[in-house]
Specification:
The complex is a heterodimer of chains A (257) and B (485). In chain A, 36% of the residues lie in helices and 28% in strands. Chain A is built from nine helices and twelve strands. A six-stranded mixed sheet of chain A has the order 6-9-10-3-11-12, with helices on both faces. Chain A has a four-stranded antiparallel sheet with strand order 2-1-4-5, with helices on one face. In chain B, the strands form three sheets. In chain B, strands 5, 6, 8, 10, 11, 13, 15, 16, 18, 20 and 22 form an eleven-stranded mixed sheet that branches. Chain B has a ten-stranded mixed sheet with strand order 4-3-7-9-12-14-17-19-21-23. The radius of gyration of chain B is 22 Å and the shape is globular. Chain B starts with a helix and ends in a 5-residue tail after the last helix. Classes of the chains: A alpha/beta (257), B alpha/beta (485). Chains A and B meet through helix 2, strand 7 and helix 3 of A and helix 10 and helix 11 of B.
């Protein structure tokens, strides 16, 4: 599904990712853990196609295609979805209008019939129900005036509607109380499927109690320093990130599944 | 970043979609402005003496201003504009004969309307829209007169009103915008060609939206529309005006005057979509749109509401205003002004509170893209006798790219201590974050921009009649194509 090879990325001349490698197959959930400034969000942004990131070396293949060659919207249409760490407010634009535009852009790209307003609304309402969320957010402007928790729930809801092949969750747990965390995690778990891969980026182990990953990778200073199963997250919780870096400083970049 | 910019550049190269020229026989007055020309215009239109005198008085006033070099220069137009040679303009151009029905209308002209998507035939009736279509200076077709006549509503060209309802015209002409009001109003009063006239009698609610489409078509023939709408006691009317103009090299002057009069308990809703040719990327060839629009809430509980979507013209100078004379009267101004390319707009409103318990609302949305310069200029004046006057002003600017400008000049003058004033203002940039958020969800750049902008303008679009709101949204998308940088 996704193959990242020796990726080097700079932001405004500063090297952030320094030889990041990772392979993710369909059906797998990988967690990337790392301290602040290790390059977690840079990784998510580069994969999603945000401007301002300079790839100086390396390659990213998504379903065999060069992902970095694609515009952000093309990546989205091809099934790459990112749940934002800080979802953006778009004043005056209704959530239904926004999501219908997104859904139909993707359907059009796939050569599927676009949905009319009624069909789209029905779909949205069904998804909201499945996720045990309130459909009240459908009737507000995109993320406008939403609480932190509501914004994150909205991201998961959008993900459920758009049904991506590769979902990247960028610190989805940050700023969530335990109830919101549970709803978000349940939503994510409901979307796990053999066809779908997920990249769960987080600072804390807490989220991984709810979204149990198949693999955990520790990102320090722009490289993966350790990889392992879900138990690695618990080790980290106990010993801190410095442990991961110190214990095995020479870990080969890109140790992976 | 760079690929975004490239796509934008490419889009920016697109040409004005409504730029084409119709070939139709014109009858011109020779270029130039003098008393002879004014007599010629008045005679051509078979006007009564009082009207000729009125024009001449206006002309003499204008000439004084002109000779004294008093063409107004206070608008904020950082790119300036070339001097207007008033003697090089033809002040009269009209199709040679006036057709009685649509069958007699030049098919070329009808095709022009069709290209513009103006539904002049039966479909329009189905859409419930009566259209007084203005081609150059003379109205060539008027529909649904009979439908309106049933209700006693007069909706006709200004020239026709002068012939058929001279007493009404004489009673109200110049009572809201006197010929001495300003330089361009004086010019218009002297040479106005045609426009629309509406009278809604007491207690009548006009059953359909009245709509006029304007179009400048003759090179060098400036367009001087004159519109007068009178809503008698307890009546209601909604009037829509929209226009596009063909591509031309010379700058074309457009100096219209619109006067609205609302008597006791009457409501006038006036909606405009302005899409005159904006000029090219260097600002060449666009329309100079110097318009005076004003409504007088003359009666108690009267209500005048202006809604405008301004996307065209190389220069827009326009302040649809309300004089709130009657007690409890209400004035509203909802505006979206978009400047792209090298367009300059200095637009806003004046709310003059005279009566007691008068209320005004101003919602202005300025969008600047390309190298556009967008200025909001507003005045709220509370006179001494205006007890308990209230004003709410909201003034938002949206910047797209980094070569455009947004400017705000609000003036507030309060002479009564019981007034309550609120003013909110904001300036924001279409964020890369917002764009990226849309794109990450699969929405292309162009659609993302129009989505974000339509959200920004939502409050104003909500004030437009439904069919106009849809058109406005489309127009905004078209006008914004290739604007982000």
């Amino acid at each position: 599904m996704l193959e990242i090879k020796n990726l080097h990325v700079s932001v405004e001349g500063r090297k952030i990712l320094k030889g990041f490698s990772l392979k993710v197959d369909a059906g797998e959930v990988h967690s990337i853990m790392g301290p602040n400034g290790s390059g977690k969000s840079t990784l998510a942004s580069v994969l999603a196609g945000r401007d301002g990131y300079e790839v100086t070396q390396g390659q990213v293949l998504y379903r065999g295609r060069d992902l970095l060659e694609m515009e952000a919207e093309e990546r989205a249409c091809e099934g790459v979805f990112m749940a934002f760490q800080y979802p953006v407010e778009i004043p005056g634009v209704g959530s239904i209008q926004f999501l219908t535009a997104a859904l139909n852009a993707i359907r059009k790209h796939r050569g599927e019939e676009e949905l009319d307003a009624f069909e789209a609304l029905k779909l949205f309402k069904d998804k909201v129900k499945q996720l045990h969320m309130s459909d009240e957010m459908l009737h507000r402007s995109v993320n406008e005036g939403f609480s932190g928790g509501e914004k994150k729930k909205n991201e998961i809801f959008q993900m459920a509607v758009l049904e991506p092949s590769l979902a990247i969750l960028d610190e989805t747990d940050s700023g969530l109380d335990i109830d919101a965390l549970r709803i978000v995690a349940d939503g994510v778990n409901a979307l796990r499927s053999p066809e779908r891969a997920m990249l769960v980026i987080t600072h804390y182990q807490r989220l991984l109690n709810y979204i149990v990953p198949d693999y955990v990778h520790v990102l320090v200073d722009g490289r993966i320093v350790r990889s392992g199963g879900k138990e690695l997250a618990l080790h980290l919780e106990e010993h801190g990130y410095s442990w991961a870096g110190e214990r095995d400083p020479a870990a080969p970049a890109g140790a992976s599944a | 970043m760079s690929n975004t910019t490239d796509a934008i550049e490419a889009l920016a190269q697109r040409e004005y979609k409504y730029g084409f020229v119709t070939d139709i026989e014109q009858e011109f007055a020779p270029p130039g402005l003098n008393e002879e020309i004014i007599r010629f215009i008045s005679a051509k239109k078979n006007e009564p003496d009082w009207l000729l005198e009125w024009r001449l008085k206006a002309y003499r006033h204008w000439k004084e201003l002109y000779d004294a070099g008093r063409e107004p220069k206070w608008a904020f137009l950082p790119y300036g504009y070339g001097p207007i040679d008033y003697q090089a303009i033809s002040y009269y151009a009209a199709p040679k004969s006036r057709p009685e029905s649509l069958d007699e209308v030049d098919p070329e002209l009808l095709r022009t309307y069709e290209k513009l998507g103006i539904p002049l035939e039966e479909q329009k009736w189905l859409a419930g829209v009566a259209v007084d279509a203005v081609f150059d200076s003379v109205s060539v077709a008027t529909t649904f007169q009979k439908e309106l006549e049933k209700h006693g509503i007069i909706f006709c060209s200004f020239s026709e009103a002068v012939q058929k309802h001279p007493e009404l015209v004489r009673q109200y002409l110049g009572t809201v915008v006197p010929h001495t009001d300003n330089f361009f109003a004086a010019l218009n009063s002297a040479v106005f060609s045609d426009g629309s006239f509406v009278y809604v009698p007491k207690g009548v609610r006009c059953p359909m939206e009245l709509s006029t489409y304007f179009r400048i078509n003759a090179a060098q023939a400036g367009q001087f529309e004159r519109t007068l709408i009178v809503a008698d006691e307890g009546s209601y009317v909604s009037y829509m005006e929209g226009c596009t103009a063909p591509m031309r090299d010379e700058n074309q002057l457009h100096a219209a005057v619109v006067e609205l009069v609302a008597l006791d308990d009457a409501t006038i809703k006036y909606s405009t979509i302005q899409n005159w040719y904006p000029g090219d990327e260097e600002g060449r060839g666009g329309i100079y749109n110097f318009v005076t629009k004003r409504g007088k809430c003359q009666g108690r509980n009267s209500h005048i509401s202006w809604t405008q979507v301004e996307t065209g013209s190389s220069i827009t100078w326009k302040y649809p205003s309300c004089i709130l004379q009657g007690d409890n009267s209400v004035g509203e101004f909802y505006s979206v002004a978009l400047t792209n390319l090298r367009q300059q707009a200095d637009t806003g409103t004046k709310m003059i509170h005279i009566g007691k318990n008068t209320k005004s609302t101003i919602v202005s949305k300025g969008i600047s893209a390309g190298r556009g310069q967008n200025t909001y200029r507003g005045m709220v004046k509370i006179m001494k006798g205006a007890e308990n006057a209230r004003n709410y002003t909201q003034c938002d600017s949206l910047l797209i790219g980094d070569q455009c400008g947004a400017h705000t000049f609000p003036y507030i003058e309060v002479k009564n201590r019981s007034a309550r004033m609120e003013h909110e203002a904001s300036t924001s940039k279409i964020g890369e974050d917002q764009m990226f958020y849309c794109q990450q969800r699969g929405i292309g750049m162009e659609d993302a921009i129009s989505l974000i902008v339509s959200g920004f303008c939502k409050e104003v679009f909500g004030e437009l009649p439904m069919e106009f709101a849809v058109e406005a949204q489309k127009l905004l998308s078209v006008s914004l194509e290739g604007s982000v940088g």
